[in-house]
Amino acid sequence: MKPLLGYLVGLVIGSIMYSVTIEASIIVLSTPQSVPEIQEVLAVEGHSTQLPCDISPPNPLEQVYLVLWYRQDEGEPIYSYDARSGGGEIGRRWSDDHGGFGPRAYFQVQTLPAVLNIKDILQHEAGIYRCRVDFKTAPTRNSLINVTVVVPPGTPTIFDESGQEARTVVGPYLEGDSIILQCIASGGDPVPQVTWWRDSHLLDSSYETTFSQTVQNTLTIDKVSRKDLGAILTCQASNNNISIPVSTRVTVDLKFRPSRVRILTKKEPLSAGKYYRLECESGGARPAAIVTWWKNNKFMGKAPSKIVDNGNLTISTLEFKPKPSDHGKSITCRAENLEISNSALEEHWKLVIYHAPIVSLTFGANLNPSNIAEGNDVYFECTISANPDVYKVIWLHNDVMVNHEQTKGVIISGSSLVLQGVHRRQSGWYACVASNLEGDTQSNSIELKIMYKPICGNFKRVIQGVSRDRVSKIACPVEAHPKASRFTWSFNNSLESHNINASQYESNSTHSILSYEPKDDDDFGLIFCSASNAFGLMEEPCVFKIIPAGPPDPPSNCSVVNQTTDSLEVECLPGFDGGLEQTFQLEVTDLQTDLVLANDSGQVPEFVVSGLNSGRGLKITIFAVNSDGRSQPFVLEGFTLKVAELQLESPVPLEFTPVLGILIGVVLTLLLVALVIILVLRIKYRNHKPPQNMQNLGSRRQAKERPFKPDHNIKSAIPTQQDAEEYFCIQQPHPDDDNDQSQTYLLKESTLSHRQCPRSTEINGSHMSLVGSPRNNNPSPYFAGSTGSSTES
Fold this sequence. Notes:
By secondary structure, the chain is mainly beta. The chain is built from three helices and 60 strands. A six-stranded mixed sheet has the order 1-9-8-3-4-5, with no helix packed on it. Strands 39, 41, 42, 45, 46 and 47 form a six-stranded mixed sheet that branches. The chain is elongated. The N and C termini lie far apart (174 Å). 26% of the residues are buried.
């Protein structure tokens, strides 16, 4: 309580002193030079402001005791700072909560000058404020501050051309449109300035006051373009340079027509019947363009699209299967902004469609296809539609190609076929085939019917076996155009000839069937069948030779082929059928057990028998059967191959087969022939002594002094294999020869054994040894020389 009491006492004393000071001040202020200067302070309502006050002591020994703040002429302070108990921040502060600023004020003494900080100043707090500073001993100092409180304007409002408030976006506008925006700011003291800005650039500062405390500025932008898209337009209202100007901004939105459209698919010929993916791209539209496809101004249906590049591009894809009829038509890709009238852009593609030929075959003009007779000329016309053009046209007759043969009356010219002097064999189905790079197309087939007299058809047998007293059916098929309308039958043999009663046969347009029953031998012979149509009577009747029926002849030339371990095949040639239709039967029996293993029958003598045991000998019997009996059997033997058994301890024994036997026989025969030849040659060589060549061995003295030594360097002296055995004759003195004549011996090269050679033959006074070859009766010199030396021959 004591500090508070002291504070109140001090406050009372201060008030008294202040009154005295005021009175003194009035006296002083009465002098003009003593009036304090008024400082101007501009404050913004709702913002903080600072009121300066010089509290610096007049001399260093002086100190501040008390600072009081007064508002205009009010006698009571609204704020105080007491530094008598301590200065600086520890000084006591007081603020009037009712008539003053309350807790919004704070006196800051550390700054130079000291300031009274006021938060969120209000408009009614504007006025002149006085700061009184009391020192310890120095005179009191007063400062006057004129506080002007500026009231900022309210947030401006933007209106578009239609008078609608624009909050964030204006538009959308079209290219070339004008933008007219009105900005209105109300409130504020003083009256604010209203300006338009784009980014940081001032667009319009021409504002006007319309009502009290209301200011407006109208902005006009002529002919907006694509570069104005997304532009930010800001309207600012400001009446001071302290606070940030209040503003409202809007973004410009624009709508654009498509600026381009392009078909991305390469414009090349297309093939009919194939699927293609056509792509079209459009750009520049806002919002994204709608892309549609048209063919000759006919909508082709919805195609999927995708928007890329932040909405700048639209790509549409169309699945297209062209038809030949699309050739020459125009494909159109159309891009348009549906929000903008008349905004469509188009690109066109004139189609070139390749397709296989479209072919139609007709008879030539002025030709009646139902009235064509043999000998007439017929021509066909193949109508072709193709792209690219055809390079080949072929003609078919019953699916067989027709060749150009003018000498035979067949003329092919381009897409026309001419048949001159047609024959009935040229009847049938005709078609043309046209070919181009896209493929081949066959036309429709049309039938050429040539009128001709009936001819014999394809009947089964000419020789008909008929049993006595048994009715047999004889069929007479004919071919004719138009169909045969009448049949006649007649009989002829060496004894008689007569027509057969019509009651014995039945006829239709294609054949006649005769029921014939021979009674005796005179009823066998020739039966003639004739037919006629509207074109005339057939030129040659159908002839049947009627013979007594009998059993068939057996089949011939039967053989077994394709034998396996469990099956075989039998093939035969059929014999005479006895004049009746025959069948063939086969029977297979086991040679060892005589069990029947298989039976089979058929129209031809060819059989496949399976399911047999391996390694079995078989008896195969084949015979022919007709309605009159069975032929003699044809019997042959066969076998099935053995199954090779696995041998683990001993090799598989060689199985003797006929083929192996033949091979062994051939080899043995060749060996025997070779052995006989060798024996004959050896016997011949032994029984025949060939003449020997003569050799001069020198004089007797030379022979005695120089014994013979074979010269192994003489190539011709070496026996060869092809010469068989060759002999060398050498001379040695004979012990019983008193005339010093040399006895000749044989030296066999292989054994070096000596044989006595024939006596030397004296030629020209020299003793020559003869050496002969067993294969040559003509003597050939082996050694020669008169001086006793050997020379090579």
